[in-house]
Structures are given as C-alpha cells and as structure tokens.
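I hope you will forgive my troubling you with a question about protein structure. The matter concerns a single protein, recorded as an amino acid sequence and a row of backbone structure tokens. Please examine both parts with care and let me know of anything in them that strikes you as inconsistent. Thank you for your consideration; the sequence and its tokens are set out here:
***
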Amino acid sequence: MRLFLDANVIFTAAHNPAGRSAAILTLARHGLCRAETSPHAAAEARRNLALKYPDALARFDSITGQLEIVPEAGAVEVAWAAEQGLPPKDAPILAAAVACGADGLVTGDRTHFGHLFGRRLRGVFVLNPAQALARVLP
C-alpha cells in the first residue's frame, strides 16, 4: 500500500516518535507499506518544526530520508482538489497524492480534510493516521 503523508503527519512523527504517525513510518521501514510525500509537504513540515520543535529537526531529516519524494501535481489537479472543499494551502497535498497514484492520503488535519476522511477520491482514500494503520496492519 502506498501512503502519501501530509505535512502534519511528518511533523508529528518527528516530534512524537511514540505516536501513530511515527508508527506508519516504522511499518514502511519494515516493508509493509510505502511512505511518500511531496516537496511542498516536506517543506511545510520542516518549516513548522523549525518554529515549534527545532530539536526535532534531526529526526525530521532521518524521516525524510525514508520517504519517497514524489513530484508536485499540475495546476489542473490542484484546481480539482480545491473543488473538493480544500483551502489553497491544502489542495496541492490531495492533488499530489492523486497524481502519484497513492492508495491513501494520510493526514491529521481534521479542520480541512475531515469532511473527506474515509472517502475515495480518484482512487485515493483520505485517512487519518489511525485509519491508515488499520488498513496496513493485518
């Protein structure tokens, strides 16, 4: 299963190594899934960690070394994602997950993605970390 990780999942995994977000990366490390993200999401996670948890930047660097960085989606895909009720800063996340062919977009952002949790959009399920873990674990 290919999982596209939103910035907040990467951020959380970096500053909370015992949480669900970090568990997804552990499963990926053991070959139970593939963890992917975009340059946009990785940069956002790094920027937020530098502001809030600068001590977690070393762990962030380790995490991003485990992730497959996929290309950003094009303008057409981003416009489609915005039509799904996402703000401009989040539309590129869904668009990139769809464009790379991920099975799931994992995000902890209930505010902007909550209305999409559990839905399948162009082949990509929008999942919170707990839902993603439930799909990956046998």
Q: What stands out?
A: The mean pLDDT is 97. The chain has one domain: 2-136. DSSP finds eight helices and six strands in the chain. The radius of gyration is 14 Å.
